[in-house]
Design goal:
about 20% strand; alpha/beta; Rossmann fold; 5-stranded parallel beta sheet; about 140 residues; about 30% helix; binds 1,3,4-trihydroxy-5-OXO-cyclohexanecarboxylic acid
Length: about 140
């Protein structure tokens, strides 16, 4: 089972960025705990980019061979038709994750271009949302 977590813009700053919203753990540290937890069940990989085009390229690269994609597209969630089209164009199912409860925040975060093309959305569970996304793909 090959599963990739893809994080979008500013999520490289997890641990430092607005810790009252996003917590104090770095994603690299959290990813190590995921790898240990799912070592026998799945091969996990992780990709982060601040660039919309690089995220589109990564979806194309993995989207016909991986079993699952967990995508937190950050602010591109609310702006990117290109990412929505990339998700629609690949065959691997995508789970949309948001660490914070975007519906409890500014109105511009309430709309996602991606959700209609995703298999499921996990919102407001903190970093545990990524775990929930992995569990979705496991038998
Ligand atoms: C986010 C929510 C987005 O609105 C925001 O732009 C982010 C992070 C989240 O994980 O809660 O960068 O996707």
């Amino acid at each position: 089972m090959k599963i990739i977590i893809i994080n979008g813009p500013n999520l490289n700053l997890l641990g430092k960025r607005e810790p009252e919203i996003y917590g104090t753990q770095t994603f690299e540290d959290y990813f190590k705990t995921l790898e240990a937890q799912y070592a026998t069940a799945a091969t996990l990989s992780y990709f982060q980019s601040n660039s919309e085009g690089a995220l589109v390229d990564k979806l194309h690269e993995v989207g016909f061979s991986y079993d699952g994609i967990i995508l937190n597209a950050g602010a591109y969630t609310h702006t990117s038709i290109a990412l929505a089209d990339a998700i629609a164009g690949i065959s691997t199912p995508v789970i949309e994750v948001h660490i914070s409860n975007v519906y409890a925040r500014e109105a511009f975060r309430h709309h996602s271009y991606l959700s209609p093309n995703c298999a499921a959305c996990i919102i407001g569970m903190g970093l545990k949302g990524y775990q929930a996304g992995i569990n979705y793909f496991l038998p």
